[in-house]
Amino acid sequence: MIVSSIASFGRYCLFMGQVFRKPEKWKVFFQRLVLEISKLGVDSIPLVIIISLVIGAVITIQMVINTVSPLIPSYSTGLATREILLLEFSSSIMSLILAGKVGSNIASEIGTMRVTEQIDAIDIMGINSANFIVLPKIVGFVLFVPVLCVLSMFMGLLGGWFISEFTSMISVENYVFGIQSFFNEWYVWYGIIKTIVFAFIISSVASFFGYFVKGGSLEVGKASTNAVVSSSIIILLADVLLTKMLLQ
């Protein structure tokens, strides 16, 4: 298993070397880049909004329930909700969710192109198929994912505000004061940096599994599953390393 993992990593590195080359036609690259931003990034906005709103509301409710003590200031609910969203949810957890949506989409699309011999046809025409197909996906998703990260942060805080506005669990004044208290701007940049790294992991790993599919439609499904599982594990490992480096 160790030998197989090392071999797969080496193959992945060679594949990335093939992907990150100068596009033969920049006009075609930018056209595909816009399409990939729309498909992988813009189409993910509704999912990010819904999940972030719900999670922000749930975090607020749980913090109110579990911090009922005269020793804990009432504004701590807003503060804790903000820290959880900025430090972990809107970057790491949201990336794990996007790995399921975006990663499976990329792996299945490229895998289908492989089994239907579309990639072979591109290679026969003398075009670098890895660069032509994969590079716009990676660049497009990496460029747009900071928007999803910031949107998730905002919508999560908005979900908590809904709880304070429409319930009697916590007052709006205390919630907003907690959000504003002891704010550290670096935490926002920390979340964005992590999300960019995770976006590269999701798009590149999914592309790798899809590109090297062998067989038929059954193997495409397996490649999609393997892409999601592998990218999720790598994201968790990278999360530990990035947290150690960026918050030390």
Overall radius of gyration: 21 Å
Average of per-residue pLDDT values: 92
What's the total count of β strands? 0
Helix fraction by DSSP (H/I, runs of at least 4): over 70%
User: Mind summarizing the main beta sheet?
Assistant: none
Low-confidence stretches: none
Strand pairing plus helix content: what structural class?
mainly alpha
Strand proportion, as a percent range, falls in under 5%
Q: How many structural units, i.e. domains?
A: 1
Topology as a string of helices (H) and strands (E):
HHHHHHHHH
Euclidean distance between termini CA atoms: 34 Å
Number of helices: 9
Q: Given the C-alpha coordinates, what overall shape results?
A: elongated
Walk me through what this model shows.
The chain is mostly helical. It has one domain (24-246). The protein has 9 helices and no strands. Helix 2 (26-41) runs parallel beside helix 6 and helix 4 (76-115) runs antiparallel to helix 9. The protein starts with a helix and ends with a helix.
Please sum up the structure shown:
Helix content is 83%, strand content 0%. The protein is mostly helical and 248 residues long.
Secondary-structure topology with pairs:
Elements: H1 2-19, H2 26-41, H3 45-66, H4 76-115, H5 118-124, H6 129-166, H7 172-180, H8 185-211, H9 217-246
Salient structural properties:
mainly alpha; about 250 residues; about 85% helix; 9 helices
